[in-house]
Write a structure and sequence with these properties.
single chain, alpha/beta
Length: about 300
C-alpha cells in the first residue's frame, strides 16, 4: 500500500462507516422501508457537480433515460459507456462524475454516464431497453472497436450482463469491459462473504438482497440476463476487474475472473490489499493506480 493510503485509508473508511450505508444494506427491515419510501429521481432535474469537473458535460434525454456525456478537450474517438453503482436503487453519486471526468481526460475518451431506470419503480427490463439503445448509437458513431462498457458495483453487473445480451443478439461486441468493485453474483451466497463482513465499511448482505430482488422483479436470480455469475464465459469481451480485499463482493469478482481465464478468455484481475468497496471513487493512490491500469487496458486493444 502506498504511504499516502496508509494515512488516508482509515480516514475514508471511517467516513464511509459514519455515512451508514452498511446499516441499511445489512438490515432487511431498513431496506424494505427505504424501498417503500423511495424518492429516486432517475436523473430528473439533476445537475452534475461543478467541482473538480474540467471536461464539458452535455445532457441528452433521447435514449429513454438521461445520459450525461463527458467530453474532454481533445477526444480521440474512444467511447466509454459507464453504469454507476447504487444497489440498483440510488441516484448517481457526484463522485461518479469526478471519476468520469478523469477517465475522459486521462484517456481522451468520451464518457457517457447513463442514469438508468431504478428500482423500486423500474426493473432490469427498463434499464436494458435504454442501455441497448445507447450502446447501438455509440457503435454507429464510434465503431464497436472503440466502445467500452464500464461500471462499478451493481453498475458493473449491468455492464457485464449487457455483454451477454449483445452476444445472444449477435450484435457487435464492445472492445472491452471495465469493472470496478463489481457485483458478480446477485445471490450473495459465497461462503467467504461472512468472513469479510466485518472489514467492509459499506455493504451488508441481508438488506442488499432486497434491493436486488426489487430490480430483477420476477426474473430468476440465476438468469444470465441479470446475474454475471451465470454468463457463458464466451460472452465476455476482453475484461479487466478491480476489487479490494476488504469488500464482500471481492470473492465473487475473483471467481468470475478465474472463470473467464480458465475458459480461454482474456481477463485481467487486480486485487488491492485493504481496499474496500468502490475505492476507485475516493482520493487514494490506489484509485490513481486503478485509473492508470484502466488506461493501459484501453491502450492495449
Amino acid at each position: 500500500m502506498h504511504a499516502f493510503d496508509v494515512i488516508a485509508n482509515p480516514l475514508v473508511k471511517a467516513a464511509l462507516t459514519v455515512r451508514g450505508s452498511k446499516k441499511l444494506f445489512s438490515s432487511v427491515e431498513k431496506s424494505q422501508q427505504a424501498l417503500l419510501t423511495s424518492d429516486i429521481k432517475d436523473g430528473k432535474d439533476y445537475e452534475p457537480p461543478d467541482f473538480h469537473i474540467k471536461s464539458a458535460v452535455i445532457r441528452t434525454d433521447d435514449t429513454g433515460c438521461p445520459v450525461f456525456t463527458v467530453v474532454p478537450y481533445t477526444p480521440c474517438g474512444t467511447r466509454i459507456i459507464y453504469f454507476h453503482g447504487g444497489a440498483y436503487t440510488r441516484d448517481i453519486n457526484p463522485l461518479h462524475f469526478v471519476l468520469a471526468d478523469r477517465l475522459a481526460r486521462e484517456n481522451n475518451a468520451t464518457v457517457q454516464l447513463m442514469i438508468y431506470p431504478k428500482a423500486p419503480r423500474h426493473t432490469h427490463e427498463d434499464t436494458f431497453i435504454c442501455a441497448q439503445t445507447l450502446y447501438a448509437r455509440a457503435v454507429r458513431e464510434a465503431g464497436c472497436g472503440n466502445v467500452y462498457l464500464a461500471g462499478d458495483s451493481c453498475g458493473g453487473a449491468i455492464a457485464a450482463t449487457l455483454c451477454h445480451r449483445l452476444h445472444e443478439m449477435n450484435a457487435p461486441m464492445p472492445a472491452g469491459l471495465i469493472l470496478y468493485s463489481p457485483l458478480c453474483d446477485l445471490r450473495l451466497n459465497n461462503a467467504l462473504i461472512d468472513e469479510m463482513k466485518r472489514d467492509d465499511p459499506t455493504l451488508g448482505t441481508d438488506g442488499l438482497k432486497k434491493h436486488i430482488e426489487a430490480w430483477i422483479g420476477d426474473t430468476d436470480i440465476e438468469s444470465p440476463n441479470v446475474n454475471p455469475a451465470f454468463i457463458n464465459p464466451e460472452c465476455f469481451p476482453r475484461t479487466t476487474i478491480f476489487t479490494g480485499t476488504n469488500e464482500i463482493l471481492s470473492p465473487d469478482a475473483i471467481s468470475l475472473a478465474y472463470k473467464i481465464q480458465q475458459n480461454g478468455g482474456k481477463c485481467d484481475l487486480h486485487v488491492y490489499t485493504n481496499m474496500y468497496h468502490d475505492f476507485v471513487l475516493y482520493p487514494l493512490k490506489a484509485a490513481e493506480k486503478t485509473r492508470r491500469r484502466t488506461t493501459e487496458f484501453i491502450n492495449a486493444k
